[in-house]
Records
---
Amino acid sequence: MIDNPFSLEGKTILVTGASSGIGRATAIACSNMGARVIATARNEERLQATIAQLNDAIDGHMMLCADLTSPEELDGLVKSLPALDGAVFSAGNSVTLPLQFGSRDKFDEMLNVNFYAPVELLRLLYKKKVLNKGASVVLLASIGGTHSFMPGNGIYGASKAALNSVMKYAAREFASRKVRVNSICPGMVDTPLIHRGTITEEQLAEDAKRYPLGRYGQPKDIANGAIYLLSDASSWLTGHDLVIDGGFSI
Amino acid sequence: MDIQEFIENFAAQFDETDEALFTADTNFKQLDEWSSLTALSIIAMVDDEYNVIIKGSDIINSETISDLYDVVEKKRS
């Protein structure tokens, strides 16, 4: 038997936003690497579709529906969770809006989903000791707001930059329990989030050509990064923002 | 909805273009100042002022300001 440093065997891993896009791909990839997956999202039907794609050679996968922006539901989720060896925070939303239209309520809407909800979940998982010693947390940030500043992306980028900043503080503070906290900063990834019509399909196709590796990312490209950060292969890595963007931000 | 007011709101998203160039028949994507950011501003302006969500494709498929006005008016009803 080959010793695989990327194996997630014996680990229980929470994935938020598991009903779609990067979250779904990550949940599936984690199960294929041997993890027991706790999948959460708002939409039960779509979450069920993810569960159906998990590797069923592993026992004990769970689905828990919750809207993380609701304090009660977030609290309920935390109480229902088993002890975790890892977590991937993939739940999020985006908006494309020039800054001059970025009123307080537009910022609040984005920060509630992309910043306050994951930060509160992270806080509770640590405080209530749901995260085992040596657990690894992966936050989905973005190159937007940290490495790239495309017009129209300011509100989204600010929410992700704020999250990335908390990641680094958490990495310092949680190290006392050997809990590692890292983020992934993806470039544009082909998920339902980017096909909402504000940007046309033609514009997206044109934009994809600006990526040195010639294409947008696939959810699996990001899921594989999460596997690395969750696994013992990255045991000595914390507070790092892993850019996976086909070379866009070079 | 009033087309004159729509044209003014439309023109307000531009900084360099002479206001006199904005009429119902203006082929707006041919204006030198037109950019993808202007397109995003038009979408946001329509949401703010008219409570209507238009898509990038609505802009691509509109030749003149009047064409886009018709799209917004149709979605409002």
Note: The mean pLDDT of chain A is 96.
---
Amino acid sequence: MSYRRKQIVIAYALLLPAIIYFTIFFFGPIAVELWASFYSGQPMVGESSFIGLGNYTRALSDALVHRSLSATMIYSFGSTILTICFALLFAAVLAGPTKANNTVRAILFFPYIVSFVIGGLMWRAILDPFTGILNAALISLNLPTQSWLADPDAAIWVLVFVSSWKDIGYATLIYIAAIQGIPGHLYDAARVDGARPTDQMRDITLPLLMPTTLFLAVTLGISSLQELALPYLMTGGGPANSTRLYSLHVYETAFQDLNLGYSSALSFLMFLFILLVTFLQFRLLHRDIRHV
Amino acid sequence: MYDRSRDRVPLWLRISIGALLVIAVFLAMLPFLYMVSLSLQSDADLFSGEVVVIPEQPQWLNYITIWEEAPFARFILNSFVIAGAISFLHVVFDPLIGYVFAKMQFPGRRIMFAALLSTLMLPFFIRLVPLYILTAEVGLLNTYTGLILPFAMSGFGIFLMRQFILPIPDDLLDAARVDGGGELRVFWDIVLPQLYPAIATLALLTFVFQFNEFLWPLVVVSSEQMRPITTGLTLFNQEYFTRWNLTAVGGMLMFIPCLLLFLFAQRFFIRSVMLSGMK
């Protein structure tokens, strides 16, 4: 056997576990899900009948799906934008390698590595109308108390806040890494030309951070599109379905209503949506790199 | 003329950013500080309606009661077994597969790599229902195997390893190949020693990520004994709805290993995240 031949055989032999793994756990399930999305009832396990695109047309006119989609959009855009704005600001201040900066960075980053279960439950404990420390503090200051988690207009913003609380430190670190990669001579030249620090921020730092911003927007955006733990732990989707995020809705459709065909169609719609977002991101990113 | 005063950020801006940072640091720590406080409160403290920071009589007994109320030792053990096994599998598989993609020539490489990258975009919950049914069909609900197997490899890990292997010069590998070393020998003797920091990064990030995994155990575990601590905590929370003090004790038991790991490897942690974000 020639050397080249041999290398090909070895390569495939080494890849075999990965091929099997990704077929069983990634591509297989997605194919099965696409198939199941054309059935009503419980395809794969129980009684079901073929209904073609019925599940998809049903999703388009399902008020609960619309409700969960709009909640997911508020959550996703809200938390991504909030996180990016504050992370950028903090990174600009904390990029220098001083000891105090390192400590602040570490503290801001810490919520990111602790489970959302702890973060979500403890914020709920703080906001608890009867036993929480926030209302106790408001009472002692003679201010009106809150019950935001029971308020259909406010609850989703609490989730946005907690999501950003978790991610800001992470995004700050990513920005700092990017800022440290900007060549120092650009700033030297700007200073000689009399640019203020705020000018430098606007004309050098921000434009050069564009790819990082896009990277963060897409990774944070996609991960927030699939958030389930936070509404599950903090609100259970309520009040009045105002925090019923899409993945929670899919989860309950599948595992509480046992409506497997319909939940497959809902999952697959999200799959298509994320493909679209990813595709747009690549387009944007490439255009941007060409411009810089 | 170069004017030095222009080189300074205006005072009002510095003060407001400083104030903002102080608030941010306070909010970042608040839930954890409150958890410590809550875990030592009595029910009376909870319902007193007053701000209790340090309870007058710290209820250390809460830390004993919890072991009787739910099998917390088992939850913690489960979390370590699951996250540890998954990290181990990643460390075994991801570097080798990353090497194949980075340094070996074979037909279908481009398309297979594209397929691998596509898995990075796929949210887990999209595969949730079919994976659940598969796991149920082969009888792996409520087992470690069922909890571990779906995460045995990751597109992210393989991609990360490939990025670290790419810069290793091909001449170095070819020299070893000419000397009669097989591909595995080349990988083991030349590539692997240069990957240790990257592998440590992979192991750490995987461990933390899996330690915090919530959705999959929520779905495949129904027995109390097999819960990891993430869903174990919710079981407790639902049963004792307003008993925040005991929930906080459970949270502390989950939190302390994370805190120790973070304090012990803080710099490494931060470097890992920065690296994985840039690659």
Note: Chain B has a mean pLDDT of 86.
---
Amino acid sequence: MSTIPKSRLAALAVFLIVLALFPLGANGYILGVLTTAFYFAVFAMSWDLLFGYAGEVNFGPTFLIGLGAYGAGMSNALLGLPVPLAIVVGALAAVAGGVALAIPALRLSGPYLGLITLVSVLLLQQAIVIFAGVTGGEIGLSVPDVLSISSAANYEYALAFMLVSGLILFLISRSSLGMILQAAGQDQVAAAALGFNATRHKILAFAVSALFSGLAGAFLVFYLGTASVSAVVDISIGVRVIIAAVLGGRRTIIGGAIGSVFLIVAGELLRPIGQLSTFVVALIALVVIVLFPDGLLGLLPHRRGA
Amino acid sequence: MSRKKTAFAAAFAGAAMAVVPVAAQAAKPIVVGITSEIGTIPGKAIANGATLAAEQINAAGGIDGRPIKLVIEDDHLSTTDAIRSFQRMVRQDHAVAIIGTFVSEVALALEPWAARLHEPYMITGAAANELSEYVHKDFKAHQYIFHAYMPAAYLARAVCDASKATLVDQFHMKTAVVMSEDAAWTKPLDAGYDSCLPKIGLKVLDNIRFAPNTSDFTPIYQKIETLKPNVIIAGWAHVGVQPTVQWAQQKVPVALAGINAQAGSDVFWKATNGATEGVITGSTAAPGVAITPKTLPFTDAYVKKFGYSPAYSAYSTYDAVYALADALKRAKSTKPLPIVHALEQTNMVGTQGQIAFQGAKSKFAHALKYGPDYVTGVALQWQAGQQKCIWPLKLANAKAKFPGFVPVPKS
Amino acid sequence: MLAIQILIDGFAISTLYALGALGFTLIFGVSGVLNLAHGGLMVIAAMIAWYLDTSLGFGPYVGALAGVAVCLVAALVTYGGIVRPIENSRAVPAHERELFVLTATLLWGVMIQESLSYAFTNSPITVQPLIAGTVSILGVRTPINEIFIAAVAWAVMGALWLLVNRTQVGRRLLAASINPRALTLLGFELDRIYLFVWVIYGLLAGIAGVLLGSFLGSGSDYVPGLTGSAFTIVVLGGLGSVSGTLIAAYIVGYIETVTAYLVSPSLREVPALILLVVVIYMRPQGLLGRR
């Protein structure tokens, strides 16, 4: 399962080199679209680790993303921390949030956990609005520093971040942790009978997922130069993350990346139809989910049974 | 960028995304970007106002022979979408300037990008004071931004000026409750209300702020009723229909004035099933009222083209496009700084009044100048299904009157 | 005075919440489906009612009937076009069916919201009340519409109770919700029962949508909020439990109203959300849940 044919490794390497060299050829706009897509890819991959492997229905990916984004944004805007340090603060805030979510997840499952995670997003949103003095409230928080105003540099940051995160998440999913999570997700009692401490692994899974969600949220803030509810917390953003992961192919990690890039690029391609673009993207995603439940990756013939 | 490089990029990112414009005729169009929320009434009005202005300017020969080409993009009320679209219009379409958004939150997220990318950006509908305060704060870096609409502080002043002339002088009202939605633009608005209402003789009994997603206003009206004020001074834009309908349905015995932005639209009568009868709101213009010689021709052309009357943001956007075209002609350049300097010299008759921008020293740098000689807006009231102008008095075509359930104080 | 006001206002809101969430819980109880396009269906009903009445001038009654009818059609499309294909799909493993239905109906809700926004813009509207005017109850001026809404909602819920408890088809419905497998063995078409429950659901959501539109307004932006509040109430009451849903609706409705009156209208939703978290944590099956 963890052995990948050499030919595919080579193809992957070529693909990555082409991606990295993209800024030489593409214009700023295309780079900008892909930059956002790459951060989204990390959101979706982190979500997939929780759902695809641990079987946890997390409707609130933006709770973790938002904690990372606002943690980083506020420590830069209010405390004046430099960008790298602010990103670390954001990631820590998200991990704390992830562990907090893991506690109810130990007792609950299915729609109940789904609702708790949904409520966590709503409460975070309310908190941001209520403490508008420090969070910027509805208006959004402007951060003084950005990663770079060069689209090529932003692109390379996002690409590198996505590749490293993706690789780590992928390795985790293929490690014993992934197997145990999967086993516990399907049959907790059996997993426990085999001597695995499902509790510890579950908390770990939440923490890892939160770490990458939070990091990506923090990076996104310093890319956009702003943190706002509509950009990183709103339920609709979380919905997009879930759709991306399921669309790409759940329980694959990289499916999340493919789904995200597909969704965002499709959204841009459909820009000429303006207001209806969201409708069409939702329609495409719906058709894929109903007709091809294994997502875009499942359409590849050679992945059967992998 | 060479065409070869573009083709290389397009092969990976999807062919349709990078259409190569090879229109190298003599009259190369000047591209202007419009960012807006097309699904909303004021957002649609921004797109419409810009479209109408561009068509008229092009029909009259364009800018020294070059037509204006608009790129209109929907930001879906999302800051992320708006920033992406802003960058796209600058880098891909090479827009010489970008105009739009009536949402302060979106405009505030775009401002740093206008500064970073040195892109002239005209905000035409959002009202937060912070928008032009931002320009003032670091003028050299932020000079690319123009607040081509009134900051909330001026909106509050207009409401006070109008209330003095009508509610206080004509109807002897003495007490008010301020009731605003909790949003960026109402903070300075409320501050303005609190300071100017007492000066015109309206005592502020309470200041109530509510969440924009409030669906039931009964508790708020109940609380207001116990205070027995003469008038509610509103600060509403995101909400409008629901509080207006509940005000009428529950027959709240207090007049309703201030800013009820949605009531400025002529579809508001239908949206509220007529509950808006007697509601007073500050607005940019009123039907049939010639603020300047340009107002009525604009309204007529707009109604003819789109089939309904313009919302407030259509006036400001239409004026902004004309101001930009005028600046481009004077600047004889499409480079950012010459455009900015030419815009600063703007002094033209617009649909809203005399259009001119404030200087760097002003607290509201690059915002529209306010006053009887420039722009003040109007106060209008819904009377028997019609929007009537009740202020400024020299333009008024009706006197204010109130529904039966609203008692008017005996002097 | 204030207490009476809270009592009356909270009652009207709670009753609407109950009616809106009832169909939602019924579908779950009988067929195990959580329909996250719920809010979209309710808004369709209100928008159609408003459009026919106010824009086309057919009058409030025609508008209301058409709104309910279109909502019913939309509910059946949801079932036939989305939920059923997924339930019957062999490619979706049984333990993931729930998530697929959730995701797919969520997408469907987004599509409904976007189409409504495209057709009518996202500006909110209000459905014209069937009865105008106000009446004084113990000194509190109350719109007659509020009383009318509560009366209609309770009549509909009463009819539903009779249907489930006093008719043949209702008892089958009940049986299906308790043990679907046994029912199939008895030779009843489970498919037909499901279709039937979706018809009831469509009618309930339509009526609730129109009434809500006349009381609290409606518009494409209301879609996620309505889905969320139905979801919250239903989980709080216990998934699939009709009486639990009713109790939860009144608890949430009154907590919100009390908060709005006594604390601040801006904080209206917060205490109910916190209560929900506490209840789910202490008692995951909800107040009256079976599982």
Note: The radius of gyration of chain C is 19 Å.
